[in-house]
Amino acid sequence: MTLTKVKRQELIIAAFFFCTAVALGAFGAHGLKAHLSEKAMAAYQTGVHYQFYHAIAMFITSFIGSAYNIEIQRPWRLFLIGITFFSGFCYMYAILGIPKFAMFIPIGGVCFIIGWILLILKLFKSETK
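and the corresponding structure tokens:
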């Protein structure tokens, strides 16, 4: 299996999100823990966890697209947008303590859900061909 330019870019971006999840997790555990409340630290860690989960999803989705020869850009992009909104606003809410940032977190969650639903539908449709 050869990787197209698009698949390579998808994998590079997914790997970037893995890398930053590790860095942000370590930063939270070693640099922020003493400075954040328990509630803020929990929000921060939730952002790190969901970034990891969906970086994995992005990585695997790229390979699913190749293996089943299906277009997976929409679910993949929704995972990307989901990480940006969900995890990004978890980080900002935790670090800056601005409650209004928490209002944007559900946008990311909805993107994750829609991404998973689209991936399921793509896989169902690929079986019927």
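(Above: one complete record from the training split.) Helices lie at 5-32, 38-68, 73-96, 105-127.
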